[in-house]
Design a protein that fits this description.
- It is built from 14 helices and twelve strands.
- It is of the alpha/beta class.
- It folds into two domains: about 5-100 and about 295-325, 3-Layer(aba) Sandwich (Rossmann fold); about 100-285, Rossmann fold (3-Layer(aba) Sandwich).
- A seven-stranded parallel beta sheet has the order 8-7-6-9-10-11-12, sandwiched between helices. It has a five-stranded parallel beta sheet with strand order 2-1-3-4-5.
- Helix 5 crosses helix 7 (about 155-170).
- The chain starts with a strand and ends with a helix.
- The protein binds 2-keto-D-gluconic acid.
- 2-keto-D-gluconic acid binds near residues 53, 54, 76, 78 and 290.
Length: about 325
């Protein structure tokens, strides 16, 4: 029997390609070109599975043009690059990579918080520019992390990881807001208290965004929300671009409406709003919160597992729209 044909839409670890090649006839984007939707459609012809990353959009247009497609395995926990409604209607399975990146991403969220609140990149640029000629009492004086109030918007697995780090490692008071409240035992484990979004914005010394992107969370943090935050506050976004209004954030930072920000994800990335590039009190990183070698390898292998299990007739480990499997 011939092997199913799949497409790997971005460059990934050679050992994961080798693994996939044992099960599939694989075409892969070894040049790691950023394909347009039309190019993606062209490469998908004759393929029944695709290995995607967050930069590959799968929507009704792609599905219509690729009727043989049965599964899209995303190497990401977030799947806002998928139109899940259209995929379910077309009987195409979506899978993601939860759990394997939780701790790594929570580590990075904390690193970004520390870097922004303690003005690390701003002070490093100063030093590299040869401007450091003397000690002064208030040179790059920032805000404390330990003992402060940590706010978390979006309390899924990564949010809980950040809460644990804050409460157990840094003695922070942790408050959170989420679509649904955690059950009491999980709240106790994370030492986190549920508050309204208003209270979160008004009382957090540091606010970390870890909620999924959806039309409802678009610009969840805009000018009005930034105006409610403390002037000493830090904002960290490791969730998705588009959750923060980047132009409003740049204004708030420039006018010291909030003290600092750490931003890993951007609306329209890899483009970055030009105003963010010119404000000093923001740490900017290129969407690398899950980027450690072991975690990226685990993510790639989990996406591969989803493809392998699906085509072996078994239940893939992390389906997003499992209703599709019921109809097999
Ligand atoms: C990925 C991410 O690096 O998992 C996610 O949702 O944002 C990142 O870990 C990115 O989406 C590439 O697929």
């Amino acid at each position: 029997m011939s092997k199913p044909r799949i497409l790997v839409a971005r460059e990934i670890f050679p050992e994961v390609i080798a693994r996939l090649e044992k099960h599939f006839e694989v075409e892969y984007n070894s040049a790691d070109e950023a394909w347009s939707p039309a190019q993606l459609i062209a490469h998908l012809q004759g393929k029944s599975g695709v290995f995607t990353t967050g930069s590959n959009r799968i929507d009704a247009e792609v599905l219509k043009a690729c009727p043989e497609l049965k599964i899209c395995a995303n190497m990401a926990v977030g799947y806002n690059n998928f139109d899940i409604g259209a995929m379910t209607a077309a009987g195409v399975l979506a899978t993601n990579t939860p759990d394997v990146l939780t701790e790594t991403t929570a580590d990075f969220g904390f690193a970004l918080l520390m870097a922004a609140a303690r003005r690390m990149t701003e002070s490093e640029h100063y030093l590299r520019a040869g401007k450091w000629t003397k000690w002064s009492f208030d040179m790059f004086a920032g805000s404390d992390i330990h003992g402060s109030t940590l706010g978390i918007l979006g309390m899924g697995r990564i949010g809980q990881g950040i809460a644990r780090r804050g409460a157990l490692g840094f003695g922070m008071k942790v408050i959170y807001h989420n679509r649904s409240r955690l059950d009491a035992s999980l709240e106790a484990e994370c030492k986190a208290s549920y508050v309204s979004k208003k209270e979160l914005l008004e009382t957090a010394d540091h606010l970390v965004l870890v909620l999924p992107y959806s039309p409802e969370s678009h610009h969840a943090i805009g000018a009005a929300e930034l105006a409610m935050m403390k002037p000493t506050a830090t904002l960290v976004n490791i969730a998705r671009g588009g959750i923060v209004d980047d132009a409003a954030l740049a204004r708030a930072l420039r006018h010291k409406q909030i003290a600092a920000a750490g931003i890993d994800v951007f609306e329209g990335e890899p483009s970055v709003h030009p105003d963010l590039l010119t404000v000093p009190n923001v740490v900017l990183t290129p969407h690398i919160a899950s980027a450690t070698v072991p975690t990226r390898l685990a993510m790639a292998n989990l996406a591969a597992d989803n493809l392998i299990e699906f085509f072996s007739g078994r239940t893939p480990p992390s389906p997003v729209n499992p209703a599709v499997l019921a109809g097999r």
